[in-house]
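INTERNAL TRANSFER SHEET
From: sequence group
To: structure group
Subject: Microcin ABC transporter permease

Please process the attached sequence and return the structure record in the designated field. Keep the field labels unchanged so the import script can parse them.
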Amino acid sequence: MLNYILRRLLLIPMTLFGIMLLNFVIIQFAPGGPVEQVIAQLQGTDVSSTARITNQGADSGGSASSGAGNNFSSTSNYRGAQGLDPEIIKQLEVQFGFDKPAPERFWMMMKNYLTFDFGQSYFQDRDVVDIVLDKMPVSISLGIWSTLIIYIISIPLGITKAVRDGSNFDIWSSAAIIFGFAIPGFLFAVMLIVIFAGGTYLDWFPLRGLTSSNFDELSLLGKVGDYFWHLTLPIIALTISGFATLTMLTKNSFLDEINKQYVVTARAKGLTEKRVLYGHVFRNAMLLIIAGFPSALVGMLFTGSVLVEVIFSLDGLGLLGFNAVMTRDYPVMFATLYFFTLFGLIMNLISDLSYHFVDPRIDFDAREN
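Return from structure group:
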């Protein structure tokens, strides 16, 4: 097992490098880079004010920290640049680091990222690390609590459906699951706001933010209550849209194990149904479900809550990444991509190791020999 872990750890840098390189190359061909974004903002202003704005941007931004973006070298290559002083375009290129060739920019970016130096945002004049840390509480809160609740609901429900397969409970619960699966999470979130957040009927829950404005003045118990009061509706929206798949996966996994020969043998030996289910079936059936928990958590943390964050005015990592793409804020884009990819690769390794933890009979070293 140690050899397997070492091999996987050695693969992480190469995989991370390949993913970053591929995305960097794609970005070179994407229109509407940061220089064009600034040009679009500057059009319609006089040359003196334009020069003043770009000079201020160069002073605040300095050299581009991530070195990512479109590899343009002349004014004619920028859309909307006609009529602007070429010196302004050169200042913008220096400001965003586009005065260097693409290979050099990629090398500088990866060299800085190895030391976790993610530089500054192009348009927020703040360190990328500080921006990400500001968004982390929202994403961690939504991701961890919704994932835990989904597992707490789905696993017992899936086991019960497998044991009572074909019963009225199985039929009606399947109908409810299909209903929950068919409704998008963001649409359910809007419905919750309309009903419970002062939209049309009740005004029980706050509409925005992770905490109240007087959070610092509350007692410890009051802070905990205020925190979960704000999270209730977003977590419900994420849970409703996420528990259906895991419930059916649990049911089908248990049904597959229940019909195997070793279960028939255990029953023939006189073991109780409870002993058969939780002493023999549970470990084998839960292997895939438990091992998939790290990957599910990664997905919920970074990709599963963008629309929910927008609807409930929660400024998290999902919304940060979306806004960075829309504004072409390359330092934020590539820094978050680097962090999310690295975190995802580590969690995938933990997911593989959890197979061995759940079932010690699984030996990755023996499998490869």
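Handover comment: Residues 45-67, 69-76 have pLDDT under 50 and may be disordered. Residues 220-258 form the longest helix (39 residues).
Transfer complete.
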